[in-house]
Every structure is written in C-alpha cells, then in structure tokens.
Description:
The structure is a homodimer. Chain A is an alpha+beta fold.
Amino acid sequence: MTDLNTLGEIGLIERIRQEIPTPTHSETIHGIGDDAAVFDWGDDYGLLTTDMLVEGIHFDLTYVPLKHLGYKAVTFGVSDIAAMNGLPIQVTISVGLSSRFPVEAVDELYEGIRAACVAYNVDLVGGDTTSSRSGLIISVSVLGKVPKDLITYRHTAQPNDVICVTGDLGAAYLGLQLLEREKQVFLADPNMQPNLSEERAYLVQRQLRPDARTDMVHELRDLGIRPTAMIDISDGLASELLHLCHQSGTGAVIFDENLPIDDQTHLAADEFKISPVTAALNGGEDYELLFTVRPQAFEKLETNARITAIGYLTPDPTQIVLSTKAGQQTPVRAQGWENLMQKK
Amino acid sequence: MTDLNTLGEIGLIERIRQEIPTPTHSETIHGIGDDAAVFDWGDDYGLLTTDMLVEGIHFDLTYVPLKHLGYKAVTFGVSDIAAMNGLPIQVTISVGLSSRFPVEAVDELYEGIRAACVAYNVDLVGGDTTSSRSGLIISVSVLGKVPKDLITYRHTAQPNDVICVTGDLGAAYLGLQLLEREKQVFLADPNMQPNLSEERAYLVQRQLRPDARTDMVHELRDLGIRPTAMIDISDGLASELLHLCHQSGTGAVIFDENLPIDDQTHLAADEFKISPVTAALNGGEDYELLFTVRPQAFEKLETNARITAIGYLTPDPTQIVLSTKAGQQTPVRAQGWENLMQKK
C-alpha cells in the first residue's frame, strides 16, 4: 500500500489522467489538465469546471461566515472559467450537511450563493442536498462559454511572452494569518472581542470574500487582447507559473520587486515576520489570473493599473527563476501536498 | 434555530428553490425541480446534473468495493440524464479523501469510474481531488443532450396516461439487507467467511453495481415513443411517483400485483420478513425509470419484457393510491428524510 502523501496532489492527478480513456465524442476538445474542460458547441467553446470544498480543509467555520463561504464557493468555479478567457453561464451547487447545521445556516449559505450568482451574472440551475457524517461539504460546477477565437489554455505560451498578473498578491494569505490569530485569542478567552482594525479590512476581505476576475476577461476583450496562455492562481502563483511553463515547454524569469503587493500586505507581513514575496508566491487563495501576452500586445496593457508585468518567458524549460533586485536568481518552487493539507 | 429534520429534504429544496433568482440567460430553459437542468443549445437541449455521495450516508466501505462505488457514482448522474430522455456525453468527478486511503484505493475507485465511462459512452473530462477530514466524498456532474422534440420533464403527464417502470424493483434494497447481515456476522466474528450464495448474486449486484437505463432511452427512441413524463426512481418508486403527480397535477392508481419484482427479491423478502411491495415502493436504489405514455402509445410497449405497466394517472391530484388485488386502496406515501438518513 502506498501513502497518498508520497505521490502528492500533482502526482495523483497525473496518475489519474494517464489512465483516462481517450474521449469518444468529437465535441470533447480538451479534458483534464486545464482550469476547465472544453467542448465544441458550434460558434463557441463550452467550458465546465468542478471543485469541492471541505470543512476543516478549505475553510474554518470558526471565522468564516456562511454567507461569505457561499459567495466564495461560486467564486472558486467562476475563476476557473475566467482563466479560460470565458464567462460563466450556469452553476450547480451540491451541499452535504451534518445535523449540527440548522435551517438558518442553510439560508445564510444560499444568501451568499445568490449574491455571487447576481455579481457574476450566472444562473443557479441545480444541485444536490444531502446529509454528511461530519461537517459541511460544498461541490460547485460551473458551465461557461468562450468564443472559439478567444480561448486560452495553459500550454500555448511562447518564449519572450510577458508574464502578467491581475490585482495584487499575498493579501488573502495575510488575511488568513490575522483570522487564525484572532481565533487563537478567542479560544484562549472566549470573552475577548476580535481586534480586526479597519486597516486590516482589505486583507480579511481578500480571504473571506474574494471576487473572481470576470472583469478582466471583459477588459482584455475590450482591448482586443487574447492572452497566449492563462491560469487561475488561487492555488498560489509559484505552482501555477510552474504549470504554465511545464505545459508550454518554456522557462521563466520573474522579478520579486515587480510582484504586486498591497501596502497592507507589507505591513501585516512585517508583523507576522513573513516574507511578503513568499506570501505572494506561495500564499494562495488570491483569485487572480496569471497570463502571458506577446511583447507587442503588452504595450496596450502597460498603463493598466489592474495588470502588472512580473517577468517574461524564456526558451529553457529547466530555468524557472525568481530574480531579486540584487540580481540573484533562485528557482521557483511550488508548495507540496503536505503543506497545502496543513495550510488549507 | 430550526432543526433541519423538521423541514425535511423536500422542504429544504423547496425553500432553496423559492429564493433562487430568475435565470437571466435566455438559454437556461429549466433549472431546479427536475432530474437535470435544461439549456437551449440550438438543435438540442443540453442537460446538466450533479450529485454528491458521502461515506457513511450513501455507502458503507465495509462491503462496497471501491471499484463498484466508482461505477455507481457515474450511474447516479447518468440515470438523471436518462430520466430527461437524454444521453450522457461528459462527466466530471471530484473526490475528497481522508489520509486513511492509500494510492491503490484511488486506483480502484477510478477503475470503476473508467468502466462506467466506457459502458455509458461518456467522456471523463475533469474533476477535483482534495483531502477530507473524515472519509470519502464523491461529487459527480454529468452533461448530456436530448433532441428538443424528445425531452421529457416531470410536470407534463396527463390523466389516463399509462404509468410504466423499467426493469424490476426492490432488489437493490434486499441486496442491502443481505450485505448488512453479512457485515454484522463479520463484525461478530472476523474469521467468518461471507455467505452470499450464487442465487443471491442478482440482489447484491443490483445494490453494488447498478446500471443506468440509457438502453431504455435508445429503445424508446427506436420505437418512436416519447414519454409524456419521466423520472429516475433511485430515491424510491413511491416518492418519485408523488413528485411526478404533484408536478403534473394528476392523481394515480397503481396496482400492487403489477409491480415488477424478481423471484430472488420475493425469496429474500420472505426471509427478512419484509413486504416485497414495500421494498419495491420505498426500498430505493433501483436505478430504473418511471415514465408515463398516452394509452395509444402503450400498445407498442405491451409486449416489451423490460417495461411494465403498473397503473394509470387520474384527474384528481389528491388521490395517489396503491390498489391491492382485493380492491383495497391505500394512499402512496414517501419515506421521510429521517428514514432516508438512517437507511442510506
């Protein structure tokens, strides 16, 4: 018998993938290996993604309000559709609940789900409700669409492409640290009131109620830009940059001083003695997009405050490095399965 | 705070449904309230269904081999697509695993998933793999299609329609009783070998590795028959007949002597002192279809050994009754949420 941890999550997915029969339906264009599966629906490509969120692994109800969790579950799936340069259309949500949850908890969860459906303009069309032995489980599937000439995969980037990220990075991770600290304070003294100052609101919001970047999909279309590759980085910038490079057969250089990090993230990182660069690279849960564009296309994005160029792709797939201000280069590394299991 | 059990599963779904915003995408034809959501995809309707299976609620790994479980998970979703008179095209499977599962367990589960994909001619296109705090969780989503003029809903049946079921009923429930008994014997004496005789193989197979009736979808098409309504009865014949009647605004009379019950089911029911009619009505987990046809259309089905007429629809929606040989009529009742929670 082989322990799952020896294989790792990537190893496990690769093992499953290798054993999957070739699709027999000609409309199935692309299966496992991207943010969403791709189907030929005539004028457009159809997109389908599915994610599972498990209490105690992906969220801690000590400090995650159910309303925010419902919103975040939809964000999870919508972000995968956005990463294919698509827009979401329908969503299904399945919920497994242990008997400790009252009806009001379900109401609260669905309040957040509904708010997200309105925010992302997606129709809630179904789901399943079941009991569970312990805790809350949420499974979300999102159907979306993308015009055929706009789809973006992970494997189509080229050397010299500019590597861009949307928004800023590391804030969700520092938000988690703040919430975890407050939880410990609360556990030590349940009469203690949480001490989350106004200035920290951004970090906490990034953790509890992140938004998927469908706005960037619209913006790129308006600018007439189709990325050469794109990927959702909610699992962490480092691991997703590695995926994009491995699948495209390229290397990469990214510059630590270019990583977009909010002032609040810097302040909290100081306080927690965490490197803000590590938080940005490996913190995860930033529902942002990593994408690449041809150098000439980047000119149209240069002045866009919501998009930051963090480096460029190189021809040598063995060299995926972080370059410091001092010129030092270190290999970009992803977190392991074990770390993820502990963190999430 | 209100206990979930006071609301019941149907009440909970109704509560969620009432609060769902009206779809904003014109291609969303039908959302919650049928076996699958329905989308306008041009020539065809697209279908999407999602289900969640939780260890300890839906399956007991003491006697359910993981290979069979993988197969059954796909069957679960495919059966919902068949109930809309559709055929499945793509499937995604998400799996939550606690650390007690070795890599070999995942292999076994996926072996069954793959076998089902081949059997139902469906492409496995994605999923999610995550850890769970306790036990195994499987979420399955299936995309399918149906020609627009063949779709069948639950709400479109009419009085005088003939009520039909495919296959036979109650076998899966008796299979479960056999497996539960063997489990108790094993728990009392782990050296004891299971005593599942050859004759019982059919019952155990109906419980462990049921097949969705996509074959009946093909057969009905070949015969040129479009049911007036159809529903999957894996939750039990009684509850699903009630759904069909409530949504169609009809009553029904079904005849106990017409219920298709296998000889092995009769024998095992005798042994367990369970009424075979109760097993057929409320046992559940028979992955069969309940459908209605106009009386004139039924002539084409009369000699079909795989389809049984069990009664007819009536105009009075308050009268949904089981009629015995002696002419006695009793109201058809569904199992409650609590019973389901205990049983599954």
